[in-house]
Amino acid sequence: DAGVIQSPRHEVTEMGQEVTLRCKPISGHDYLFWYRQTMMRGLELLIYFNNNVPIDDSGMPEDRFSAKMPNASFSTLKIQPSEPRDSAVYFCASSPGTGGPLGNTIYFGEGSWLTVV
Amino acid sequence: AQTVTQSQPEMSVQEAETVTLSCTYDTSESNYYLFWYKQPPSRQMILVIRQEAYKQQNATENRFSVNFQKAAKSFSLKISDSQLGDTAMYFCAFSNSNSGYALNFGKGTSLLVTP
Does residue B88 surpass a pLDDT of 70? Predict the structure, then answer.
C-alpha cells in the first residue's frame, strides 16, 4: 500500500511568497494531521481533520497559515505570506482512527522541507 | 495538558550491545496510547513500537521492546543487539481521545551506534 504522500519534498522560496504544501493520506484513513518540526520547538501539531472536517487548529501559529481538506484523499497547508521563521520540515500524517490492531496509529509522510530566504 | 519527557538528549551504544531510552509522561487519563518513533537523518518518521495503556503486557517488535510502568507513568524503549542502522533520533509520544489521538511528542533522544 502507498503511504502518506507529500509534495513538494523540498522548497526554497523568498520571504513574502505564498507556499502551498500538499498531502495525500493513506486510503481509508479518517484522520489527517499536519505537524511542523523545528530545532527550537520540536514536533508541533498544527491542525488535524476528521472525515475532512477541521477539528482542532489551535496549533496553527498565525493567520498566515491555513489548511484545507476538500476531500478524503487530499489536503493542503498554505502559508501566505511566508517568513524566514516558517522554515521547517512540515509533516503530513494520517490515521485509521479507533479499532483494529493498529487503531490510532499515525503514519507519517516523508515531510516537506521548507526554506524561506 | 499531557506532557512527555525524554531526559536523555543524547546516548551512545556499541554495536551488538543493549541500550535503554527513557520516557515519562503525565496524564490523568486511564485510556491512552504510547509510541516510539525513529527519525533517521533522512527525517522520515518511522513507527518503532506501540503500546495500549490497558494492556499490561509489554509490547515487543523484534529487537525492540518496551518497559511500560503505568503507575509510574514510564515507558522506556530497549534496543537489543544494536545495529549501525539504529542510529537516529528517537521520539516518545502519547495520544488519547481528548485530542483526536493526535500525538504529543517528547523532545527526542539522539542515539549513536558505534562500531
Answer: yes
